[in-house]
Specification:
- The protein is mainly beta.
- The chain has no helices and 5 strands.
- The chain starts with 26 loop residues before the first strand and ends with a strand.
Length: 63
């Protein structure tokens, strides 16, 4: 997270899975294009273009 900014957009690279992790802040995920599967608290879910997800602080998740 970019300290001093309330929003820091990031683009996740294709075919580059992230390890499970958590933050001390909210994370918003919005799918601009494509489809991906993410896991929140060990519950897997597919997201597609136009989907939005808000992850609460200290919740383990990965893409």
């Amino acid at each position: 997270m970019n300290h001093g900014r309330s929003i820091a957009p990031c683009k996740h690279p294709n075919y580059s899975p992230a390890l499970a992790h958590s933050h001390h802040f909210f994370e918003a995920q919005y799918v601009v294009e494509g489809i991906f599967t993410h896991s929140v608290s060990n519950y897997g879910s597919s997201m597609k273009q136009g989907d939005f997800c808000l992850i609460s602080p200290d919740i383990e998740h990965n893409l």
